[in-house]
Amino acid sequence: MRKFEEVTTESKEIFKGKIVHLKVDTVTLPDGNTSKREIIKHPGAVAVIAQKEDGKIIFVEQYRKALEKSVVEIPAGKLEEGEDPLVTAKRELEEETGYTTDNLQLINSFYTSPGFADELVNVYFTDQLTKLEHNVAGDEDEFVELMELTLEEAEQLEKEQRIHDAKTSYALLYLKIRGLK
Fold first, then answer.
1. What's the order of all strands across the beta sheet hosting 120-126?
2. pLDDT above 70 covers what percent of the chain?
3. Which of 4-13, 20-29, 140-149, 152-161 has the lowest mean pLDDT?
4. pTM to 2 decimals?
5. pLDDT of residue 138
6. Is 146 within 8 Å of 75 (Cβ atoms)?
7. Of 53, 81, 140, 152, which one is the catalytic site residue?
8. Contact 77, 60 (CB under 8 A)
9. Any keyword Cell cycle (predicted)?
């Protein structure tokens, strides 16, 4: 057994939804004792830092039921089963913003909440955007409003907690480090 490894001795699926699955695992701890772990299985997601030629960054505002409020975020979405994250990133960019690109660079990926979920978000960057002639239909239950902001405007929204999620805060830090003014 590797240091700190927990060995699953039993796994029980509690809920299987459209996006997430919840299971409860019984594990043997490194010291030999047992414990329960509640785990959310998620297909993974992408997020896109999309910067226009004028330096403005593309965001979307949408209502997030889990938070009971609207938040401003970078374009993002979940992976479809078996879908390449790069394909997902381009699709989500087109659906949510009306822009496309042939140049998406993977910046990094991170687990959103490794204490209880396996969701991995792949973050891409592009500064080569083309406006689509016709909007691409998005998810029928998703309503978003496009926003184009300077870094300073976005940082102000973060202070106001209108930008209040990890992937978008990560994007702002990335742009600041990259030297966007």
1. 76-78, 45-50, 120-126, 105-111
2. 97
3. 140-149
4. 0.92
5. 64
6. no
7. 140
8. no
9. no
Q: How much of the chain exceeds pLDDT 90, in percent?
A: 89
Question: Which fold, 45-178?
Answer: Nucleoside Triphosphate Pyrophosphohydrolase (3.90.79)
Chain centroid to Cα 119, Å, comes to 9
Tell which phi-psi region holds residue 68, choosing left (phi > 0), alpha (psi between -120 and 50) or beta. Answer: left
In the annotation, is 140 catalytic?
yes
Cα-Cα-Cα-Cα torsion 127, 131, 137, 140, nearest 10 degrees, comes to: 60
Q: Is the dihedral of CA 54, 57, 63, 67 positive or negative?
A: negative
Instruction: Decide if pLDDT at 120 tops 80.
Output: yes
What is the largest distance, in Å, between two alpha-carbon atoms of the chain?
62
What is the distance between the alpha carbons of residues 96 and 136, in angstroms, rounded to a whole number? Answer: 8
Domain positions in the chain: 7-41, 45-178
Q: Could you tell me the end-to-end alpha-carbon distance of the chain, in angstroms, rounded to an integer?
A: 49
